[in-house]
Design brief:
The structure is a single chain. It is built from six helices and nine strands. Helices cover 27% and strands 12% of the residues. The protein starts with a strand and ends with a helix. Strands 2-1-5-3-4 form a five-stranded mixed sheet, covered by helices on one side. A two-stranded antiparallel ribbon has the order 6-9. Strands 7-8 form a two-stranded antiparallel sheet. The structure holds FE2/S2 (inorganic) cluster. FE2/S2 (inorganic) cluster binds next to loops.
């Protein structure tokens, strides 16, 4: 098969997103998890054009076939991803100057890749102003920086069997939280910190990292 003119070998039925990433071709993505059998397909950032298909498709839900021709740079696919990114960022708290994830944040990376601003001037900003959970001895959770990608929910459930983190509410109110919104410190969290490893933004951070970032920026 071919992706952006590069010949790529993969197994028929492999997932297109991972085939591209494994071959050094970046496609923006937030909600994809390699081991998850069913993709969540929630972030709508991984649009690509597949020859023979009328509309762009999400790479995370597409399987590869022999001779497939994929264009990750098609204008239509880019525009869809860019619009999705702008909408996502409209309700996102930006605090890059004080965030220890700045520089390795996937949102910054995606913005650069798409040639988009972190905050679009076209859209009105909607602030969520949710309380930060500072109760845990190691972890700080700021739901205002969460993009609802579900990676932490998945990682927590895979690690503990019964996840400490889960989704609550619908629509704009949707949030990742603990059962009954309990403080993280009072849950069964065993401090594996896998949620922090998979979080693409600065929503879940180690407390010592936030202190080091604050000290170096003071
Ligand atoms: S990675 Fe495909 S929709 Fe999120």
């Amino acid at each position: 098969m071919t992706i952006d003119g590069k010949h790529v070998t993969a197994r028929e039925g492999d997932n297109l997103l991972w085939v591209a990433l494994d071959n050094g071709i970046y496609i923006p993505n937030l909600c994809a998890i390699r081991d998850r059998p069913e993709p969540m397909a929630a972030c709508r950032l991984c649009f690509v054009k597949v020859e023979g298909k009328e509309r762009p498709v999400t790479a995370c839900t597409e399987t590869v076939t022999e001779g497939m021709i994929v264009n990750t740079k098609s204008t239509k696919a880019r525009d869809l991803a860019k619009r999705g990114f702008e909408l996502l960022m409209a309700s996102q708290t930006l605090d890059c100057a004080h965030c220890s994830k700045s520089g390795s944040c996937e949102l910054q990376h995606i913005a650069r890749h798409l040639g988009a601003r972190l905050k679009s001037k076209r859209l009105r900003e909607i602030r969520r102003e949710l309380p930060i959970d500072d109760s845990h001895p190691q972890i700080i959770y700021d739901p205002n920086k969460c993009v609802l990608c579900g990676r932490c929910v998945w990682a927590c459930r895979e690690h503990l069997g019964v996840g400490v983190l889960g989704f609550a509410h619908r629509g704009f109110e949707r949030v990742v939280t603990t059962f009954e919104d309990m403080p993280l410190a009072t849950t069964k969290c065993d401090r594996c910190v896998e949620c922090i490893d998979v979080c693409p933004t600065g929503a879940l951070l180690l407390k010592r990292e936030t202190k080091t970032a604050a000290a170096s920026k003071a």
